[in-house]
Amino acid sequence: MSNRLKVSILVTIILVSVCFAFAVFAQAPARGQAPAAPARGQAPARAGANVPRMPGGKPNLTGLWQTLSTANWDLRDHGALAGPFHQLGAVGATPAGQGVVEGGDIPYKPEAAAKQRENFKNRLTLDPEVKCFMPGIPRATYMGFPFMIIQSQADIAFAYEYATANRVVNMGKPKEVAVDTWMGTSNGRWEGDTLVIEVTGLNGMSWFDRAGNFMSENVKVTERYTLVDPNRINYEATIEDPTIFTRAWKISMPLYRRMERGAQLNEFKCVEFAEELMYGHLRKK
Q1: DSSP sequence for 192-232
Q2: To the nearest whole number, what is the mean pLDDT of the chain?
Q3: pLDDT, tens digit (0-9, with 9 covering 90-100), for 260-279
Q4: Is residue 187 packed enough to be buried (19+ CB in 10 Å), middle (13-18) or exposed (0-12)?
Q5: Residue 223 has what pLDDT?
Q6: How far apart are CA 96 and CA 18, in angstroms?
Q7: Across-strand partners of 167?
Q8: Kind and range of the H or E run holding 158
Q9: Which CATH number fits domain 3-26+46-79+92-280: 1.10.40.30, 3.40.50.10320, 2.60.40.10, 2.40.128.20?
Q10: Which own/partner contact pairs does 15-20 have at CB distance under 8 Å and 24+ positions apart?
Q11: Backbone angles phi and psi of 176, in degrees to 5
Q12: Are 43 and 193 in contact (CB under 8 A)?
């Protein structure tokens, strides 16, 4: 087992262990408590009347969640596409899907649009997912793997099945970015019943999808999680990156609670699956 994998597993265990104690008591809805009023001049966020709530009145997002979208193949509208290897047949093909981008397209600058097309052409060697790198935000949300939200009265932890990625959302005084990382620095706040997370300090090496849509280290992602009913979250992410895009743009999709008996976060330790691809050429003949 590589040192990188050991560290990642250890971090995940620590995060879940620390947050679990805070989250256990928060599973039951608080009765007779209304959510805090929104700030002056701000429209209140709408959550369902029967959603579970924390003792302080905020919606309780704790649970195992997953999207059903095809956004990880391409954020935009896309038809079915044959895979890069004919030997894989239909198994390696891209399924058709409806886009999740508001307005339908991503507002690239001309030179960035050319790079996106080049990324797609060389996706088998360039896509960070192929190499089992951390997925970044927002891609971790819609990769097709479930992820867990563990909410306490203080901070909120996210644990992702893909590559044992994780992050802690700071709900206190905003923290400055110490160093750029794959998962960035997350500072959260509540706007009515909506959890708003501003993610900065991303290293710019993540992609948005398998179609080669990409970001730079100057990107800022603002996520919004609204619990519209006990088993569904409306997820939105606004992307700002003036080095690549002509304006800010937004994606949105529902997230569904995994409700089958025994549903749990499993492990997808993909480092070992990518080692031959990345380092096989270094093996002594």
Answers
A1: TTEEEEEEE-B-S--BSSTT--B--TT-EEEEEEEEEETTE
A2: 87
A3: 999 999 999 999 999 888 88
A4: buried
A5: 98
A6: 41
A7: 158
A8: strand 156-160
A9: 2.40.128.20
A10: 15/150, 15/157, 15/159, 15/166, 15/168, 16/148, 16/150, 16/157, 16/159, 18/157, 19/150, 19/151, 19/152, 19/155, 19/156, 19/157, 20/150
A11: -75, 150
A12: no
Q: Across-strand partners of 147? A: 65, 160
258-271 burial code (b ≥16 CB/10 A, e <16): beeeeeebeeebbb
pTM reported for the whole predicted model: 0.83
At residue 28, the pLDDT reads 38
Instruction: Give tens-digit pLDDT for 152-177.
Output: 999 999 999 999 999 999 999 999 99
d(CA 244, CA 39): 33
CB proximity list for 258: less than 8 A, separation 6 or greater: 63, 64, 65, 66, 146
pLDDT score of 6 more than 70: no
Read off the amino acid at residue 81: L
**Amino acid (1-letter code) at residue 216:** S
Asked whether the beta carbons of 95 and 73 are under 8 A apart, the reply is: yes
Asked whether the beta carbons of 166 and 160 are under 8 A apart, the reply is: yes
Distance CA 224, CA 137 (A): 12
Backbone phi and psi for residue 122, each to the nearest 5 degrees, phi listed first: -110, 30
Whether the per-residue pLDDT at 26 is higher than 50: the answer is: no
- Pick 139 or 36 by higher pLDDT: 139
What residues does each domain of the chain span?
A: 3-26+46-79+92-280
Q: How many residues does the chain have?
A: 285
Kindly report whether the peptide bond that precedes residue 138 is cis, defined as omega within 30 degrees of 0: yes
